[in-house]
Amino acid sequence: MSPRSARLARLSRSVTFSACHRLHSKSLSDEENLKLFGKCNNPNGHGHNYKVTVTVRGEIDPVSGMVMNLTELKEYLQEAIMEPLDHKNLDKDVPYFAEVVSTTENVAVFIWENLQRLLPSGILYKVKVCETDQNVVVYKGEETMAE
């Protein structure tokens, strides 16, 4: 294969943000919330240092040698993740979570949707959110399970 042939690659960049939240569903009673979410249902909330890794994919440009300019990707992560989420109370400061439980799964969906609006169409591959070293969610844009 010649150096000019198209090659597909994935490029990832990570950011870390701090935020607090309370796992609580308005669809459940206080007792059901406590049973389901345990100490994470603390009325005063609790905090995390979330690590987010965003992966884009595309052809390696034969001129620049890049899938995407890292400076541009960094700016997109700043706008889609850091500005709306860093040092925020997710449930009180982020309108999206007023009606959506602020689980790590839903944080990943929120980030995906924000990035989809900013990035070139079709380039976003994966959003990985580490709430802790033990709790990690990977979201690739799927809406439902295949039948």
UniProtKB/TrEMBL annotation:
The protein's UniProt keywords, in alphabetical order, are:
Lyase, Metal-binding, Tetrahydrobiopterin biosynthesis, Zinc
* Recorded coiled-coil stretches: none
The cellular component terms of Gene Ontology attached to this UniProt record, alphabetical and capped at eight, are: mitochondrion
Q: Name one GO molecular function term.
A: 6-pyruvoyltetrahydropterin synthase activity
User: Which PROSITE patterns did the record assign?
Assistant: PTPS_1, PTPS_2
Q: Name one Pfam family in it.
A: PTPS
Give the residues the record marks as binding Zn(2+): 21, 46, 48
> Which Gene Ontology BP terms does the record give?
tetrahydrobiopterin biosynthetic process
| Cofactor(s), by name | Zn(2+)
- Functional pathway: Cofactor biosynthesis; tetrahydrobiopterin biosynthesis; tetrahydrobiopterin from 7,8-dihydroneopterin triphosphate: step 1/3
The cofactor note from the UniProt entry for this protein is: Binds 1 zinc ion per subunit.
Its job: Involved in the biosynthesis of tetrahydrobiopterin, an essential cofactor of aromatic amino acid hydroxylases. Catalyzes the transformation of 7,8-dihydroneopterin triphosphate into 6-pyruvoyl tetrahydropterin.
Q: Which family does it belong to?
A: Belongs to the PTPS family.
**Protein name in UniProt:** 6-pyruvoyl tetrahydrobiopterin synthase
Tell me which species this is from: Sakesphorus luctuosus
